[in-house]
Amino acid sequence: MNNIFYTGQEVDFISFIESKKYESICVLVDAKTNGFCLPILKNVFPSFENVSSIVMPDGEVNKSIEIVQLIWSEMLANSISRNSLIINLGGGVLTDMGGFAASTFKRGVDFLNIPTTLLAMVDASAGGKTGINFGGVKNCIGSFQTSIATYINPIFLNTLSSRQLLNGTVEMIKHALLKSDVAWDAVKNYSLHEFMSIDKIKQSIAIKQFIVEQDFNDNGIRQSLNVGHTIGHAIESYSYQTNTPLLHGEAIILGLIHEQLIAESILNTDSKIRKELIDVKERLFANINFTYTLNNILPYLLQDKKNSSTINMSLLASIANCKIQTVVSIDELKKSFINL
Ligand code: GLY
Predict the structure, then answer these.
(1) Do residues 197 and 169 make contact, with C-beta atoms less than 8 angstroms apart?
(2) Does residue 324 sit in the same domain as residue 186?
(3) pLDDT on residue 126
(4) Which ranges constitute the DSSP H helices of 268-311?
(5) Residue whose CA is at the smallest distance from ligand 1 atom 4
(6) Index of the ligand 1 atom closest to the CA of residue 211
(7) Residue 281, phi-psi category: left (phi > 0), alpha (psi -120 to 50), beta (remainder)
(8) Pocket lining for ligand 1, CB < 6 angstroms
(9) Within 13 Å, how many C-alpha atoms sit on residue 140's CB side?
């Protein structure tokens, strides 16, 4: 696993980087983090004042091979060598893409992640998944490549809208569901302010790390992190075709609720979990009014990288008991829409 440094450990973080004796350091930013977060980074770490930067366009639509080519071209122009360091400063799209571009450039350049969104802090920053979307499929091309370090500082969260902040809470909700009744009982009542605190962020990352350490290559228990994501990703992809595209977390809270209905039918899961998730959705995501049909999401479910001809899902049988690769028939899926 990579080294995670938290706010308060700045001296250790800089010593760690200096110990690597890099020839050059370059920061990858997007249009937003260039304006809002790079000045904060330079303020926290004055030694980064003169580092070069590469600016890529922001947003999920730019998580593409064309933008990776742009990053590679800029790396060439900045004379990045195998003894350079790339610092990915941004949200999950940027850290996934920066990790992919760095790990493939000249057969691998070290990179580290400084996530600037809550979502990236609790999810993309740990676990070594890099990648881009391709052929309409999310994260279709990518690699497992651990960053040399991650630095987490909630100061960057002050640059985000409340919609973007809420977007990150859903992975924390998911981690609590996978951890224990105690964790879920606490998290289901958190205010947005609590979700943003360094202690809660640390606890959430620790849950993810515990799972990833057991199954880095995603062949077993790590797939429990996909709970809510089979339906959630399909809803997210479909929403891009509408006038009301959803953020990842907004789609995943809908996916978590929908998948619980299926779990109730297939695994006899207690409906209490779904009802509590609906309460959380109504409290934190009262403005989401997104509807979808089976026909809307089925094409995405069938092309999801986790599925071949059958639809496999990671479903919660109970809190902290996730059944990975549960086969869900189309009939079962249809039935879930009747009760939605
Ligand atoms: N976001 C799921 C994983 O890292 O496996």
Answers:
(1) no
(2) yes
(3) 82
(4) 271-284, 294-303
(5) 127
(6) 5
(7) alpha
(8) 123, 127, 129, 218, 222, 225
(9) 14
Gap between the Cα atoms of 315 and 292, Å rounded: 20
Distance from residue 76's CA to the centre of ligand 1 (Å): 30
pLDDT of residue 296: 96
pTM confidence score: 0.95
- Ligand 1 centroid from CA 266, angstroms: 24
Instruction: Provide the pLDDT for residue 137.
Output: 79
Q: How far is the CA of 258 from the centre of ligand 1 (A)?
A: 20
Domains identified in the chain, total number? 2
Question: Which residues does the chain have with pLDDT short of 70?
Answer: 1, 304-309
Give the residue, out of 143, 144, 222, 223, with the most ligand 1 atoms within 8 A of its beta carbon, to mutate for a pocket test.
222
Cα of 166 vs centre of ligand 1, distance in Å, is 19
Residues 68 and 128 in one domain: yes
The H-assigned helical ranges of the chain are 10-19, 31-36, 38-44, 65-77, 92-104, 118-119, 162-179, 181-187, 192-195, 198-214, 229-239, 248-267, 271-284, 294-303, 330-338
* Residue of 296, 329, 299 whose CA lies nearest to 311: 329
User: Are residue 209 and residue 235 in the same domain, yes or no?
Assistant: yes
Same domain, 97 and 187: no
Domain CATH for 236: 1.20.1090.10
**CA 291 to centroid of ligand 1, rounded, Å:** 26
Give the pLDDT of residue 35.
97
Predicted pLDDT of residue 245: 94
